[in-house]
Predict the 3D structure of the following.
Amino acid sequence: MSGGFKKQQAIYEQIADSLCDLILKGELAEEEKIASIRESAITMEVNPNTVQRAYEWLQQQEIIYTKRGRGYFVSEGASKKVMEAKKQQFLKETLPEFFKSMQLLDINADELMILYQEFIKENTNENI
């Protein structure tokens, strides 16, 4: 993820989002150990304090937890929590903007359904 950060969102939030995405994709399983703060900071080429902030936020959301002296681990039920949080964020933030664009560009629901069905066919069994 190094160097690929967006300017409109805090880096620690992007780090947290990327870990959440790994959990949703099944690349990080519940109870699996995740990289240490130092390891992640080196890999992502960011300050360890930034990673620490991301991990603290994830702990507050009960997505990860720490075992004293052993490191950070993905919490039981993390996938479900991440899915629900991302779903709510999508419904409250992304979808209204999407609908505004549809209205502005005069795209109707039937056109959208056709495009969505084509997308599903093309992306079946592919990781998004």
The chain has a mean pLDDT of 92.
